[in-house]
Every structure is written in C-alpha cells, then in structure tokens.
Task: structure prediction
Amino acid sequence: MSPELSNNKPNLESLNSISRALKPEYWNLDSSDYDVSPEVLQYADPERFAANLYDLPKPNSRLSLPYYSDSIDPREQKIIYVAVTPNEYNKMLRAISPAHLANTALSKTVASKPMDNVDSRTKAGLRAGIHALDAKLEAMEKYRDSTITNDIRILDRLLEATEHPGLARGKEMRMRSDMGWVMSHMLEDMFIALKNQKDWDGSQLELARKVTYSRIFFEGSNSERNNYFKDLMMVNRSWMLRKRALIDQRTNSIHRFKND
Result:
C-alpha cells in the first residue's frame, strides 16, 4: 500500500517545496488507509531501520554481505555487514576475495573437459574464471554508476529541500519525480531488505509500509513530518553509501586479482 500519484492534473512547471510534497492531498491519500495505533509508530523509527540495514556486526540473514569498515589504519579495520535486496545479492561478488568465484568457475570447467589434454583443460578453466569475474565486475560497476549514484543524487536533493521546507526547490515535475522514485523504488528496497533481515511475513511487511507512510504524511505537525522524512532519507543515504563502499571494495579486489 504505497502512495500513488494524484489523479488531479498537477501544474508540473510550477515551483514546489518539500512541505507541499509531504501533504497527503499532494498524492491524493486517504487518511483511513493509513490509520494505525499509536503504539506501533515507534517501529518505523529510522534508527530502528538503520540497525538492520548497515554496520551489522554479524549477518542477520543470507542477504547480508561483508566488507571492511572504512578505517585508515588497517589494524582498526573490521568486517561488518550490509543488508542487500535479492536483486543486489545476485549482482554482487559475495565473498570479500574474488579468488573463490574464480576457483569455482575454474574447477567446474576443468571437471567438464576431457582428461586427455591437461593444458587445454587448464586454459579453459582459467578463461572461465576470468569470465566469471568480468561478469560480476560489469554488473557491479553498472549498478553502482547508474542506480546507486543516481539514488544518492535524489536523496541529496530531497535532504537539501528538508533544510528549507517552505521554500521552492525546483519545479513540481522534479519534486514529483524524486518523491515518486523514493516511494516506488528506494523505500520498497528498504522494506524488502528489512523483511529478509527480520524474517517478516507479508502482514508484517505491509504494516511496516503503512506505519512509515503514516508518519511521513499524517502523524504530527508539518515540522515533525518534515524531520521524520529527513531522518528517513538520511538512513537511506547512509545505506546507499555502505553499498557503494562494498561495491568499490569488490571491484578493486577483482582488478587487483586480475593484475597479479
């Protein structure tokens, strides 16, 4: 039950502010669809979401991937985990070291080749290992450069708008596009990741959506809703940065492995 664009034709060329975009009438929302009891509002706190999305000391599920914490001193680096969606999981090199994937591809290829030509089997295995790494490298770099980088830009624009909620921040076309992308893509990715981390069933997932949108559009004063949305966007931005750091470490490790 995520919000949809209003049926009323908006003036897409008019100047817009985040305070307008956070009003339910902007999206033609009915408060009865997002009516929740006060005691469940706490479960949509951005800090609770963050605790299950990134900087995880250990994996909460199969869909958590390890990477090294950002520290200049190697002695202070430690392995932490970040939650990913199933789509991201399929794109990522899952181990910190690329050797495992390369060796797995090599072993499978060698085992499938005739036994009479050892050199041919070995060369084919090495080619398979490099091909497997190249495929992961291409998928990760494309996802980072297109999706993650673009998502961070959108979040930056919306976060800047929350600093001056009553002031115009571009045309309505841009605001609707940015907010629509957040609700249909970024928040849905967050809910899917949280579902896997917390082992929610379908009703729990739907409740998380309902409570979150209730807090964005209906709960509290305009200022409180603006601050909630800002905190939620900051959590999503931090999550994006962690996933970008994971991809950077994986792609760099593949380049080093291939050059050794």
